[in-house]
Amino acid sequence: MTAKGDPGEAGIPGETDAERKMRFLYALRSRGVTDGRVLTAMEKVDRGLFVRGHFADRAYEDMPLPIACGQTISQPSVVGLMTQALNVQPRDTVLEVGTGSGYQAAILSQLCRRVYTVDRHRRLVAEAQEIFRNLGLVNITAFSADGSFGLPDQAPFDRIIVTAAAEDPPGPLLAQLKVGGIMVLPVGQSDTVQSLIKVTRSDRGYEYEELRSVRFVPLVEGLSNE
Predict the structure, then answer these.
(1) Which domain holds residue 143?
(2) Are 107 and 133 contacting, i.e. CB atoms less than 8 angstroms apart?
């Protein structure tokens, strides 16, 4: 869940839903989200359903926004770029570490066979599950768990996405990635700008590619009381 991003444009008075959607998609393309399947998925999933309270009217701006439990919903362009880097295929099983609002998992659900998503905050998982049910997203399974250990019982995974920053890619997650699989995650200390990296597992080991600078909330071990 990103904690910092480029400011988005404010809503335009009198703007129709179609115009708002076109502006939203244009902002994604202008920031490097060009994959047609990813753009279609992001057009289908209404970000406004995942933003509540005082910030609901800013749901279509390209910026991170606060959600419950001191977390954030990532800015759409970062969601798009991470999803694009994952190169999700229709038969893939994907693990998401950091459910947050559920927005990223909902987009992934449009692209793959099955999404498993985990978060240490029980409240966030419960709220996301409610949205998934309302949207009829039956291929998402959400857990309240310590995501730094992944989900060994469901492993291995074709794709893994982590929406919180660790100093290094967690060993259990690397181990749960299939050969030929891809993991995308932010790496770095929580109080500095981190690097978004793409990890590809091959027969020879792991290959790392740095994608861009980002800033995410830290990956915290253990379950929360919330």
Answers:
(1) 17-214
(2) no
Does the residue 112 lie in any domain? yes
Catalytic site residue from 30, 74, 195, 202: 74
Closest Cα partner for 188 from 205, 211, 221, 164?
Answer: 164
Kindly report the pTM of this predicted structure: 0.89
Please say if 74 is a catalytic residue. yes
**Domain of residue 175, CATH code:** 3.40.50.150
- Let me know if 200 is exposed, middle or buried by CB neighbors in 10 A (0-12, 13-18, 19+): middle
Show pLDDT as tens, one digit a residue, over the chain (226 residues). Answer: 444 443 344 455 566 777 888 888 999 999 999 999 999 999 999 999 998 878 888 888 888 888 888 888 899 999 999 999 999 999 999 999 999 999 999 999 999 999 999 999 999 999 999 999 999 999 999 999 988 899 999 999 999 999 988 888 999 999 999 999 999 999 987 667 789 999 999 999 999 999 988 888 777 775 666 6
